[in-house]
Specification:
The complex is a heterodimer. Chain A is an all-alpha fold. Chain A contains 14 helices and no strands. The longest helix of chain A has about 35 residues.
């Protein structure tokens, strides 16, 4: 079965790999390559294709955990039910809200920090080390730390805000408080990633055009706006789409910080709704249908990502 | 010149502030872990003026099965890392060196899909499947699953490292009559050692941090540290000391790793983040 899709690629005229020079592995190569790729193939089949097919199968049945009636096929019932459920649409709005807010804060912040680090001032390598720490830490532990710090009465954040005379929001107990809490903590963990990838992209830019613009008398902000930023744009687009994909995946943080999408359903994203449906209410088939719908939601981001990668 | 100095000072100030924000929660957690209860809740907060205590660590150590949880985490992390890096290295070599072979395109598409599709979608059917096959709550299930979700990242990272090995060396060995298998084992792998190290460190880190898979597919038998740490979320306002201690145990190895292998980490994260 693995040969059929590949032969399509082989027959494509002017394929993007067609004009590379002959490499040693190529002669006996294709057979060896197939062999080397076989374990990866097996893994993808076992833990991806099988569960996806399983989800499709489940989504057309009415399986619930702990039900005694024998499960049967119910056609599109789970899909129709999901689409008619206001909680589904609310979860999509919440997903997009958290994603949008997160990106609006993380992207400028990460890119800004990268630009500062890219100046390579003495001693700033140390700052870089400090700044990548958050993205490496266990998300579950991060969620707990911030729960502790954002506690309305006993947390250090509201104490500091009180000392400064600023309002003390009810972070995890109100709808908008929770939305901002998730945005703050997600930014704390993800902005370093944006920073690091932007830093690599900056290092890869040829210095010539920027120096030329500076010599011609452009101010630093002009060099950035008219030379650096446009050159950086393809890489930033790929980065943005990776962040979209990872933002849609957000799970651990919500699980801990807002205790599975709370307060109420204030931060219940589609991923969290799937969890709560399947493992909170044990509606296995309904959760599977929601999962299939989520894949459809991720698909556009995925296609755009592939295009952006090809382009850059 | 004056503008330059001002700009530099501003850069330092912003970076220092950002570093402070990045590190403070870690400092706060680690110090909370060694505070007595009264110091934990003191406001204004006691940043450094408290008497350290090991009581919180003793408390979590005395939790039933904590030793087993640690052992599970180490076994699963080591197993998943070895499996993932091994499989990824072979696939990466095929992808980087062989422009066309049967199944190449679907493999590429499959890797991108695994990277893009949220794992929660797979968990609903996998929970049923593993329960029925008697694979629920086993180390093997966790190892294979965690290795698989990290396979795309590891494969792209290794492919970018393979791309840096000069093809001429392999051609020379091939001309001398070495079989492709021998070329891979004796020529390429030794040159890949720094790349392998970076990939291993990063995958180990991701495996150590993994929460979704063990919380869904393991019960008490194969419970890992992140799942144990997540248990503290139910304890409202009471158990902050032990909670901080548990979090500290989870993040300590990472902090050590960050200091020791910073260069590898940064290089790996930058190369593997964007598909090579």
């Amino acid at each position: 079965m693995s040969d059929a899709p590949a032969s399509r690629g082989r027959g494509r005229p002017g394929g993007r790999l067609g004009d590379r020079p002959e490499r040693p592995i190529e002669r006996e190569g294709a057979r060896l390559a197939r062999l080397l790729a076989a374990p990866a193939w097996a893994m993808l089949l076992a833990v991806f294709l099988v569960p996806i097919l399983g989800a499709l199968w489940l989504s057309f049945r009415n399986e619930t955990l702990g039900s005694f009636s024998p499960p049967r096929f119910v056609g599109w019932e789970n899909y129709a039910g999901s689409l008619a459920d206001p909680r589904f649409w609310e979860s999509i709005r919440t997903t997009l809200l958290l994603l949008g807010l997160g990106l609006l804060v993380q992207m400028p912040l990460g890119v800004g920090l990268a630009l500062l680090l890219h100046r390579r001032l003495r001693g700033t390598a140390l700052f870089r080390t400090a700044l990548i720490v958050p993205m490496l830490l266990t998300p579950v532990a991060v969620g707990l730390m911030w729960r502790f710090m954002l506690d309305t009465d006993l947390g250090i954040v509201n104490w500091a805000l009180g000392e400064l005379g600023a309002p003390e929001p009810n972070w995890l107990g109100s709808r908008w408080g929770a939305v901002w809490a998730v945005t703050v903590v997600d930014t704390w963990q993800s902005a370093p990633f944006v920073m690091l990838v932007t830093l690599a992209a900056l290092a890869g830019l040829p210095p010539g055009p920027q120096e030329a613009a500076a010599v011609d008398g452009a101010r630093p902000w002009q060099v950035f706006a008219f030379v650096t930023f446009p050159a950086l744009l393809p890489a930033l687009l790929v980065l943005l789409l990776i962040r979209v994909i990872d933002g849609l995946k957000m799970f651990d943080l919500l699980f801990i910080l807002t205790q599975r999408g709370g307060p109420g359903t204030a931060t219940q994203t589609l991923g969290m709704l799937i969890y709560n449906t399947g493992f909170g209410f044990f509606q296995t088939s309904r959760a599977a249908a929601l999962g299939v719908l989520m894949v459809l939601l991720v698909l556009p981001a995925w296609l755009l990502w592939r295009r952006a990668e090809r382009a850059s | 010149m004056r503008r330059g100095l001002l700009g530099d000072a501003l850069s330092y100030a912003v970076l220092a502030l950002a570093a402070l924000v990045a590190l403070f929660p870690v400092f706060w957690t680690v110090t909370t872990a060694i505070k007595a209860r009264a110091d934990t809740f003191a406001l204004p907060p006691r940043l450094l003026d408290f008497t350290p205590t090991s009581r919180n660590f003793e408390a979590i150590w005395e939790t039933r099965g904590f030793g087993r949880i640690l052992l599970n985490t180490v076994v699963v992390t080591a197993g998943a890392t070895a499996l993932c890096v091994g499989v990824a290295t072979l696939a990466a070599y095929a992808l980087a060196r062989s422009p066309r072979f049967g199944g190449r395109r679907p493999l590429e598409v499959g890797l991108v899909l695994v990277r893009a599709v949220p794992a929660i979608v797979l968990m609903v059917p996998l929970f049923q499947l593993t329960s029925r096959l008697g694979l629920y709550d086993s180390h093997l299930t966790l190892i294979v699953m965690i290795a698989a979700v990290n396979l795309p990242f590891a494969t792209w990272l290794m492919a970018s490292f393979v791309g840096q090995v000069p093809v001429a060396l392999e051609q020379a060995a091939a001309v001398d009559g070495a079989s492709p298998g021998r070329v891979l084992w004796h020529v390429v792998l030794p040159l890949l050692r720094p790349g392998l190290a970076a990939t291993t460190i990063l995958v180990a880190l991701l495996a150590w941090n993994e929460f979704l898979i063990p919380v869904m597919l393991a019960g008490t038998g194969a419970k890992t540290l992140p799942v144990y740490v997540s248990g503290f979320v139910a304890a409202r306002n009471l158990d902050w000391g032990p909670m901080a201690a548990a979090s500290t145990v989870a993040i300590l190895p990472i902090a050590v790793l960050t200091v020791l292998a910073q260069r590898s980490l940064v290089a790996g994260l930058q190369a593997g983040a964007v598909k090579g």
